[in-house]
Design brief:
This protein is of the alpha/beta class. Helix content is 52%, strand content 9%. The protein has helices at 10-22, 39-56, 71-79, 94-111, 130-140, 155-164, 176-201, and strands at 2-7, 26-31, 60-62, 117-120. Strands 3-2-1-4 form a four-stranded parallel sheet, with helices on both faces. β1 (2-7), α1 and β2 (26-31) form a beta-alpha-beta unit. The N and C termini lie far apart (71 Å).
Amino acid sequence: MNILLHICCGPCAIMPILRLQEEGHSLTGFFYNPNIHPLGEYLRRREGTRQVAERLGIPMIWATEPEDYAPDAWMAQAQARPEEAPGVPGKPGARCVFCLGLRLERAGGLAVGGFDAFSTSLLYSRRQSHDFIAGRGAESGREIPFLYRDFRRDWERGIRLSREWNIYRQQYCGCLFSEYDRHARDLSASNARLRKTAADRR
């Protein structure tokens, strides 16, 4: 099949590309990720994607129009969706539902007419809800099939190859909300230490 593969970043794309190529599919990558902030991070991930695509020999479609990366607009849309209570394993919050849906909708629409199916490298991540992605992918691809594969079994090999190839490896999902969540506990602990120090000096 001729498949459009939405790619979130270089490291996550390696094993989906290799596995789908092994199955005999023809692939075109699509980089569309308006959630990635700040801009320097976006450019690093896009460059990592370019390096992987070049190494593995797949053509790319790049979202390069000004509206394709508009942080103010994306943040306003994401912020308008109040987060659900944290601590629900495997269930994405409202902001993640919006973000994942936006990217899958765009990929599904782009695939119509030129491809037999579409998929996403998000299916490589152990941190994503595969049930949600599979369901939303099917909804997004009403006119074209969404190809589901579980690439998580290749997690360690993908990490090893990305390191061997010196592909930039990010430390957070992409948006500033996820980066904040990653360090929120450190901030809380730091605030407590500073309050204690200030109190001790009184």
